[in-house]
Amino acid sequence: MNYDIVESFASMVKEKGIDKDVLGGILEEIFGLLIRKKYGEEAKYDVVVNTDRGDIELFLEREIVEEVEDPNAQISIEEVNKRGNDEDLEVGDDFVEKIELASLGRRLIVLAKQSLNQKIRELEKEIIHNEYQELLGEIVVGDIYQIRKNDILINHNKNELVLPRSEQIPFERYKKGGTIRAIVKEVRKGPSGPVIVVSRSDNMFLRRLFEIEIPEIYDGIIDIKAIAREPGERAKIAVESQDARIDAVGACVGMKGVRIHAIVRELNNENIDVINYSEDPITYIQRSLAPAKLKRIELDEDDKKAVVNADSDQVSLIVGRNGVNIRLAMKLTGYEIEIIREEKAFEEYDEDIELIDLKEELGAEVYEILINHRYDTALEVLTAGVEKLLEIEELDEDKINEIIEIIKSQFEEEE
Predict the structure, then answer these.
(1) What is the dihedral sign for C-alpha 15, 19, 20, 22?
(2) Which of 33, 41, 61, 227 has the most neighbouring CB atoms within 10 Å?
C-alpha cells in the first residue's frame, strides 16, 4: 500500500515537473497529520519517505511504563517484553515502533489521498504561477481555443492564457484554432488557479517584436529610447545607435523595408514611424512631428510645454488623421505641444497659377466674374484680399472666403 501511494504521486511529479524533495515534504506533512489524528496532537512520531524506492515508513515513540494511563503516549513494560525486543529496555525508556499504514484505518487513508491530491493541485498552481511570473514582458505563442465577447482564451503549453478586449488590437480579427503571439502582461492568483493575462496592444509587445526582427537591437547596438502607440492605428518609436557606423533608422527599416514590414504585418498593418532620438528637445520634437515642416519651436522645459509655429498648410500633417500624429508626438517626447498656425505669405509661393487653370475648381460663373474684374491669376486674387474683393457686387464675404480657400488648397497641392 505504501508503494502504491508513493508511486501514484511520483508519476504525477514526473508529469507536472514537481521536485522529488518537495513531494517528500508533502508526504511527511500529510502522514504526520494522520498520526496526530489517530494518536493525538502530542504524539511523538517520525515519517520517513523514500521517493526513489517508493516507500513510506511511520514510527511512533511511546514511553515505557508499569501501568498505562494514556495508550497514545505510553506502552506497558509487559507489552514491550511480549514483543520480544532485542534491546534491553526498562520503565522510563522510550519505545519506538513501526506503524503499518493499514493500521491507521481506511477513513484516514482516504483522507491522506484526498489531502495529497489537494496539495499536488496547489503545488501545480504555484509552479504555473511562478513559471509565467518569470515570463512577464516576454512573447509567448499559443493557439486560440475560445473566442468570447470580452476576451479570447489561448492554449499555451496546456495552460490557459487570457487576452482581454482591452489588450487586443482594435479591428483585428481572430480565428479559433489560429496561432497568436502576445506578451505576458500580468500574472495573478485566482480562486481556481493563476490568471495569466497577455497583451498585443501593450508597448512592450512592439518592443519585443523589434528585438526579434532587428538583430542590432537584440545585441544592444541600437537602443529603443521611447515608444508611443495607438494600437492598430499608428506608432512612433525613437531609436539611437551606439555605433556611429550604423544608421539606427535604416537598420530598423531594413532593405526595402523588409524588417519593418514584418512587424507591421504582425500588428494588423499598424503604421510605424521610426525616428532618431535626440537629447535636444527641439530636435526631438521636430523629428517626432515629421513629415511636417515647422518654422520654430518655443520650449518651457520646466512645465514640459512646447509651442510650435507652422504654416497653415503644414498643420494637417502635424495633427494627423483624427489627431493621432500630435498625440503620439506628445507621448513620445513627454511635451505638451501647442500649434500656432501662420498664414503663408503670398510672396513665398514659388509660382503663380493662371485663373483659367482653376476654372473647374472655382466654377465657370465665379471664374467669369473674376476675369471680368481683371483678376487673371491666383496670386492676384489672394493679394487683393477679402476687403478688395467685396467691391465686386456679385460676391459676398462667405463666397469670397470659399474662393480663397480653393485657391490656397491648389498652392498646397502644387507643393
Answers:
(1) negative
(2) 227
Q: How far apart are CA 104 and CA 122, in angstroms?
A: 25
Phi, psi (degrees; rounded to nearest 5) at 302:
-65, -45
Which conformational region is residue 374 in: left (phi greater than 0), alpha (psi within -120 to 50 degrees), or beta?
A: left
Extract the C-alpha cell encoding 126. Answer: 504555484
Q: Strands 55-65 and 74-76: what pairing? A: parallel
- Find the DSSP H helices in 163-322: 203-213, 215-218, 248-253, 258-266, 281-288, 312-319
Q: For the segment 177-224, what is each residue's pLDDT rounded down to a tens digit?
A: 999 999 999 999 888 889 999 999 999 999 999 999 999 999 999 999
DSSP 136: B
406, containing H or E segment: helix 397-414
d(CA 232, CA 7): 52
- pLDDT at position 48 is 84
C-beta separation of 46 from 61 below 8 A: yes
- Among the listed residues 293, 322, 321, the one whose alpha carbon sits nearest the alpha carbon of residue 308: 293
* Rounded mean pLDDT, 47-74: 81
Backbone angles phi, psi at 55, to 5 degrees: -135, 140
Strand 139-147 to 336-342 pairing: unpaired
**242-262 pLDDT, tens per residue?**
999 999 999 999 888 899 999
pLDDT tens, position by position, 73-126: 888 888 888 776 666 778 888 888 888 777 777 777 777 777 777 877 888 888
Q: Which residues contact 282 (CB under 8 A, 6 or more apart)?
A: 297, 299
SS3 13: helix
> What CA–CA distance (Å, rounded) separates 191 from 125?
11
